[in-house]
Amino acid sequence: MDGAIYLVDCGMGVAHQLRLANLGKEGDFHGYEGLRSVFLTHLHSDHTMDYFNIVLSGWYQGLPGSAPVEVYGPGDRGALPPISGTTDVPVVNPENPTPGTVDMTNYLTQAFATDINDRLRDSGKPGLDKLIRTHDIQIPAAVAARPNDNQFPVMDPFLVMEDDRVRVTATLVDHGAVYPAFAFRFDTADGSIVFSGDTAPTPNLITMATGADVLVHEVIDADWVKSTLRRTAVQPGRGGVHRTPPALAHHDRAGRSGRRSSRRENTGPLPPRTGKQPGRTVAGRGRRLLRRPDRRRRPDGDRRRRAHQLIDTVLMLGAAVAAAVMVGAVLQRLSGTGLALVSAPLLTLLLGPQRGCCWSTSAASVRPH
């Protein structure tokens, strides 16, 4: 938004796509300028696996900026989820089995200690505290949410962050055993946009999306889930922890409440798209919130690759000319005509048939007429 970047979730490939989006400065060691905040809807790995990739690559992509990137995400779950089925399973990190965003960041920092210490000591990089500042989102005390039996009680959205460009609120949504799982709303002078995160139909999300310009909502292919997971994580209608495209379409019509547009984001593969599908257009007032990169601006890598290709071509042509002259000189010594025989076709190749045909092919000299 006007040069400020607010990132929602960090699934696989997000760091690379953020660099390719050309939202920061051009050139080497740039690309993340303007990144102000990161918001994590929940701590499933498909929403967080590129989080620390952004942090560590930030050293070489324009971070730190004038202030650390503010990272907001779920806090400690508070209790392990119940076991699905009858088989007992081990507990990972029993001293802290359900860490929140702050603890997760601390553990990742420890995991990369070798690299980080090297960058600090040998490369002179600033400490990670200059790059990011993490926050566990605190659920209001008045909301009687509990990790295993009341994960998304009916509630009003609450404030997470506000700066000079955006006001961000959150609400709890239904993502099954995952707790906390948030949806976020971004209100700006240009309009409002809501990100559902992963969720099944939830009254809290309807409340949050009421009056918004854009709803970005996840969908999933139910058949893929049933064939991949050991238990059903989604149902075509209500229930489950995701929404299918038909369920989302039904829910969108039922709960639009003045919202101008919805947009899908997929979790897992979607069925093949046939023709124009609803829910893909971003409302007019929301366009600046979902700014696409200028397609006329090629990434620096493309420009460098083209420059290298041009240099290689010139070097190869130069080498060909030198080789032709050397071979021609040898043939000329042997027959007195070699230079003309070799050089004339080469000059025709380099200068084109119109100019090449105007060169003398006498054994004594090769000169333009």
Structural commentary:
The chain has 369 residues and is α/β, with parallel strands linked by helices. Helix content is 32%, strand content 15%. β7 and β8 form a beta hairpin. α9 packs antiparallel against α10. The chain is elongated and about 100 Å long.
User: How do the strands of the widest beta sheet line up side by side?
Assistant: 5-6-7-8-9-10
Give the percentage of residues in beta strands: 15-25%
Strand tally is: 10
Q: Figure out the total of helices.
A: 11
Distance between the termini: 64 Å
Mean pLDDT: 78
Helix coverage percent: 25-40%
Sum up the overall morphology in one term.
elongated
Secondary structure: elements and pairs:
Elements lengths: L4 E4 L5 H7 L14 E5 L11 H7 L11 E6 L26 H11 L1 H10 L5 H4 E6 L20 E5 L4 E6 L9 E7 L2 E5 L7 H7 L4 E6 L2 H7 L16 H11 L5 E6 L33 H36 L2 H14 L1 H4 L13
Parallel strand pairs: 1-2, 2-3, 3-4, 8-9, 9-10
Antiparallel strand pairs: 5-6, 6-7, 7-8
Helix pairs in contact: 9-10
Structure summary:
With 369 residues, this protein is of the alpha/beta class. Helices cover 32% and strands 15% of the residues. The chain has helices at 14-20, 51-57, 101-111, 113-122, 128-131, 203-209, 222-228, 245-255, 300-335, 338-351, 353-356; strands at 5-8, 35-39, 69-74, 132-137, 158-162, 167-172, 182-188, 191-195, 214-219, 261-266.
